[in-house]
């Protein structure tokens, strides 16, 4: 019914597509893009060293990063920002804690 919101949504999709994928969605031409850090994450998760000590070190680093991410998400994002500063009712008490922990670990 209203053409202006429809046109704005179409333009928003085009702009976000170019921002996220680094390609021109109009003619679907792929462009070289550089995503720093992405290769390092894949190597850290998928390529394992041959030494047993380095494997244990990597598992310890992964587990400590996971635990620290959950703690940081709960204490800083959930308690201080969302519950205390913003005063959002949906995060009162411990509501929404698992959502914040999952997002902060990702």
UniProtKB/TrEMBL annotation:
Keywords: Membrane, Transmembrane, Transmembrane helix
Record keyword Membrane present: yes
Regions crossing the membrane: 7-22, 42-74
Pfam families: TMEM117 (PF15113)
Domain of life of the source: Eukaryota
Transcription regulation in keyword set: no
Database matches in InterPro entries: TMEM117
PANTHER family (alphabetical): TRANSMEMBRANE PROTEIN 117
Record's protein name: Uncharacterized protein
């Amino acid at each position: 019914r209203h053409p202006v919101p429809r046109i704005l949504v179409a333009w928003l999709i085009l702009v976000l597509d170019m921002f996220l994928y680094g390609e021109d969605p109009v003619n679907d031409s792929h462009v070289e893009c550089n995503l720093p850090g992405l290769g390092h994450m894949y190597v850290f998760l998928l390529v394992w060293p041959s030494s047993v000590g380095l494997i244990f070190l990597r598992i310890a680093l992964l587990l400590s990063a996971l635990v620290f991410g959950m703690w940081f998400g709960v204490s800083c994002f959930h308690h201080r920002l969302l519950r205390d500063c913003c005063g959002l009712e949906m995060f009162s008490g411990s509501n929404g804690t698992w959502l914040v922990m999952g997002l902060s670990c990702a």
